[in-house]
From TrEMBL:
GO terms (BP aspect): proteolysis
UniProt keyword Hydrolase, yes or no: yes
GO molecular function, one term: serine-type endopeptidase activity
Organism of provenance: Candidatus Lambdaproteobacteria bacterium RIFOXYD2_FULL_50_16
Protein origin, superkingdom: Bacteria
Name used for this protein in its record: 2-alkenal reductase
């Protein structure tokens, strides 16, 4: 007599169920997302470092000199020469900076250069090359909203912490510690907390796409809105810090009236105060403030546009200059008296 079909299939069902349960218990039932998280962490965590900032202070009563911890953050290995990238605010006002690698080896760092306007700092440690695992660099211009991102850092002093999220927005604007605006910033919901500053934001291939720098949070802890400086900005700045120790931008050779004073006087644009005679603006015959016979100030030129782009503040002007190099010819639209004029100036290297 032939068995009913359900009695034949039932033992097979139990066998499949048992096999599935066994696979799950053994940790083999990872989702593709989980597997990717693990692979990225294993690839990158040795490139991430712990940065501690200490300051030397003298006791006012005993006159003893003490080294006081002043903060901590994250950084990452840029290359096998020992270059370390982190945020400027992580090492700001430090007398000593110590870098701790993933293998717990610790080294005092030498300051190579800083770019406060971009909240970036470049350090160097004297460590064996075989102990250094440089991070792989990606391309932040290829990012899209919704792409998966991962952050590795040391939040609240807890080392080697991985968080996962997405690119929430692109082209954001934040303010640096020098009060300059940083444009083109990446917004993410990957958890970024105090201590994550200076750490890498990664794509799903484990490539560096940004440097975590700020969060928006009333409490100071993660609220799902974090910001990272795009890696393509970092790629441009690191060589300058390595060569000059600071960010190099071309100059017009002018001094400017503070924006608050210009607005208080009802002036729109950037007001020139002084013009260096032998600088680019001087050679282009730009005019600064003057005094009449009674000693009253007479307005000179006001920059309204730079290569056709509106210039409302000093920050706008500096942003435009950062997009050029010494020797570039630029077109300036000026307000001079009751009329607008256009002049061409050749930018010079800042001294």
């Amino acid at each position: 007599m032939t068995k009913p079909l359900n009695w034949v299939l039932f033992p097979l069902f139990l066998l499949c169920l048992s096999s599935t349960a066994f696979s799950f218990n053994e940790g083999e039932a990872l989702t593709l997302g989980e597997q990717n998280n693990i692979e990225v962490f294993e690839k990158v965590h040795r490139s991430v470092v712990y940065v501690t900032n200490s300051q030397v202070r003298q006791d006012v009563f005993t006159l003893n000199v003490q080294e006081i911890p002043a903060g901590a953050g994250t950084g990452f290995i840029w290359d096998d020469s020992g270059l370390i990238v982190t945020n400027f605010h992580v090492i700001q006002n430090a007398d000593k900076v110590r870098i701790t690698l993933d293998n717990r080896a610790s080294y005092f760092a030498k300051l190579v250069g800083v770019a406060p306007d971009k909240d970036l700092a470049l350090l160097k440690i004297d460590a064996p090359k075989e102990k250094l695992v440089p991070i792989e660099r990606g391309d932040s211009d290829d990012l899209q909203v919704g792409r998966k991102v991962l952050a590795i850092g040391n939040p609240f002093g807890l080392d080697a912490t991985l968080t996962v999220g997405v690119v929430s927005a692109l082209g954001r604007e934040i303010q640096s510690v020098s009060n300059r605006k940083i444009g083109g910033v990446i917004q993410t919901d990957a958890a970024i907390n105090p201590g994550n500053s200076g750490g890498p934001l990664l794509d799903s291939q484990g490539r560096l796409i940004g440097v975590n720098t700020q969060i928006v949070s009333p409490s100071g802890a993660n609220s799902g809105i974090g910001f990272a400086i795009p890696v393509n900005i970092v790629k441009k700045i690191v060589p300058q810090l390595l060569e000059h120790g600071r960010l190099i931008r071309p100059t017009l050779g002018v001094s400017l009236l503070p924006d608050t004073l210009a607005r208080r006087s009802g002036i729109k644009g950037v007001v020139l105060v002084e013009v260096a005679p032998n600088g680019p603006a001087g050679r282009a015959k730009l005019q600064g403030l003057k005094r009449d016979q009674r000693g009253e100030l007479i307005l000179g030129d006001v920059i309204l546009r730079f290569d056709g782009e509106p210039v409302d503040t000093q920050d706008d002007l500096l942003t435009q200059l950062e997009r050029h190099k010494a020797g570039d010819k630029v077109k300036l639209t000026l307000a001079r008296g009751n009329r607008q004029i256009e002049v061409e100036a050749t930018l010079a290297e800042a001294q």
